[in-house]
Design goal:
heterodimer, A: mainly alpha, B: 271 residues, alpha/beta, six-stranded mixed β-sheet, 9 helices, 24% strand
């Protein structure tokens, strides 16, 4: 046991490097194999473009694609902000009054379990396109925020709640100094899920909308390129969407870590 | 019914009561009789231990005194300063767990009762520093709870209970989860604090040795629903110190208290 302890403690740095390096190696190997197969077999780009072709398309079509990326990101951001504020506000409302919770919670669940792709065409009939797309992103993303925040607000330590009662804390004081900080890790977890889901909601709605024009998002570009058999551009747009998702997740995970690092178990190293 | 006794006449004199329970019972919603009927009178400045088997309702009694729960019948009277605006400021409560806010520093945790009571920041800071110094944690004000040992967390909890300068300190098995050496040290620190500050202390424990070492009076309770089985005075040379722990008088008292406690465990399987 004693001999093992330092042995397991030491390679943590190397292990961390490996965890970073290994996926990169796999990625590079995959790309190389892909490129090789396309070149050796002479597969035409409208069937399967080589990675190099996709990369060139990305550069060549950057003016169009970057515009679309911006549109999609903006939609995602709007949906995310609406879902975060709406989810947290609704959870706070539920927490203040059981009656409100009992009355509204079933509908939140219904909204969550109904596939958004099926709601989107209806929304597009009744709402302006840009609004409809944001609403779709909101619908997909708000439920995890709502349920996580509710869970967090209900997980307050019973003795701490007793302590606040003992010192005559008012409802706003209890909310601000006890319930919200206690719920914070749960809320941040909900936001992390909501970030990715807003992007999915935005993409689904864009595809359902399918309208051309200067303000069209990446998902529209994918659909449009599909009709035109511009497969390299489809891949390039897909790549951008995927990168956007990774960046959104990374940013939210970083924010969560920075906010919680001083006290919450999830943000602490194993040894401390 | 909870009555607050604010008449100056009742406060006067050395034998004035800090806490009195009359015919208090507590039944939970599921019909379980947790407590009583219980009659208990605690004088001002007294150190009383409530000793009994697990689940005998001693923690419930403490929660009733603190006003965290209402009795099913009987009256709970707690003496307070006159002109005290909000409930609870006359009472400090230490839970079995440190019950600290993990997201706040030690200083913020100790400041909590003052913040909730609307005490100005500058005054609060001085009082928080004094409370931390009284439990020997002046150097750890900016640490977070997770950075502290179990004993230090308990000290923070104690400092928080003391920061409002309460008349009555209610302690619910505060040292039960600590190792013996830490517990002994905290026992001594608590005795020193009690001697200096002259607060009324009601200390719930299931340790015969701890109750005898600390208190002037040991109130032994029966199994659920908890009633008073015996009320024993512990008299020795004050101030008490480590020597008392190894004295003949101490083991004598421990034997007596154990004997009084034995019927509470009869009929219960030891496993």
């Amino acid at each position: 046991m004693n001999a093992q302890a330092p042995a397991t403690a030491k390679p943590s740095g190397a292990q961390r490097a490996l965890r970073f390096v290994l996926p990169v190696i796999v990625f590079a190997a995959g790309l190389a194999a892909w490129e090789l197969v396309v070149r050796v077999k002479g597969i035409p780009p409208y069937v399967l473009p080589a990675p190099s072709a996709i990369f060139l398309t990305l550069i060549k079509d950057w003016p169009v694609l970057s515009q679309s990326l911006l549109t999609t990101l903006l939609t995602t951001l709007e949906g995310f902000v609406a879902a975060s504020l709406g989810g947290i506000a609704l959870a706070l409302l539920f927490n203040q009054s059981k009656w409100v919770e009992y009355s509204l919670f079933p509908y939140a669940v219904v909204l969550q379990v109904t596939p958004v792709i099926a709601i989107a065409p209806l929304l597009l009939i009744y709402l302006e396109q840009q609004t409809a797309v944001v609403v779709c992103a909101f619908i997909v993303a708000f439920f995890p925020v709502l349920s996580n925040t509710t869970l967090g607000l209900n997980s307050v330590d019973r003795n701490l709640a007793g302590l606040f009662q003992l010192y005559g804390a008012s409802k706003p004081q209890t909310l601000r100094f006890l319930k919200l900080p206690a719920a914070l890790p749960y809320i941040l977890g909900g936001l992390r899920i909501a970030g990715g889901l807003s992007l999915i909601g935005a993409v689904v709605a864009e595809i359902a909308a399918g309208t051309a024009g200067a303000g069209s998002g990446l998902a529209y570009r994918i659909a449009e390129s599909g009709y035109r058999l511009n497969i390299p551009r489809m891949f390039a747009a897909l790549l951008l969407l995927s990168l956007a998702g990774i960046v959104i997740y990374g940013v939210l995970a970083l924010v969560s870590h920075l906010v919680l690092r001083r006290w919450h178990e999830s943000a602490l190293g194993k040894e401390s | 019914m909870i009555e607050t006794n604010t008449s100056p006449a009742a406060d006067a004199g050395p034998t004035a009561l800090a806490v009195s329970l009359r015919g208090v019972t507590k039944a939970y919603d599921n019909g379980v009789e947790a407590l009583g009927p219980l009659d208990l009178a605690v004088r001002k400045g007294e150190f009383v231990s409530l000793l009994g088997p697990s689940g005998c309702g001693k923690s419930t009694a403490l929660r009733l005194i603190a006003g965290l729960a209402a009795p099913s019948s009987g009256t709970v009277r707690v003496a307070r300063h006159e002109g005290e605006a909000q409930p609870g400021h006359g009472i400090g409560f230490v839970f079995q767990e440190p019950t600290l806010m993990p997201w706040a520093s030690v200083r913020e945790n100790v400041r909590l009762p003052l913040k909730l009571g609307g005490v100005a920041r500058a005054e609060a800071r001085a009082r928080v520093d004094a409370a931390l110094a009284s439990v020997g944690l002046a150097d750890f004000a900016d640490a977070f709870p997770r950075e502290l040992s179990g004993g230090m967390k308990m000290r923070v909890s104690l400092a928080r209970a003391l920061v409002t300068d309460p008349d009555i300190l209610l302690m619910d098995e505060p040292f039960a989860a600590l190792d013996e050496i830490t517990r002994f040290r905290l026992n001594n620190d608590l005795l020193a604090l009690w001697r200096n500050l002259r607060k009324t202390v009601i200390f719930v424990t299931h340790s015969v040795f701890e109750s005898v070492y600390l208190s002037q009076r040991v109130v032994v309770m029966t199994a659920r629903p908890g009633r008073i089985q015996a009320d024993l005075r512990i008299e020795t040379v004050e101030p008490r110190a480590e020597e008392f722990r190894t004295s003949a008088a101490y083991s004598d008292y421990c034997r007596k208290v154990s004997a009084a406690l034995a019927p509470s465990y009869s009929g219960q399987s030891l496993l």
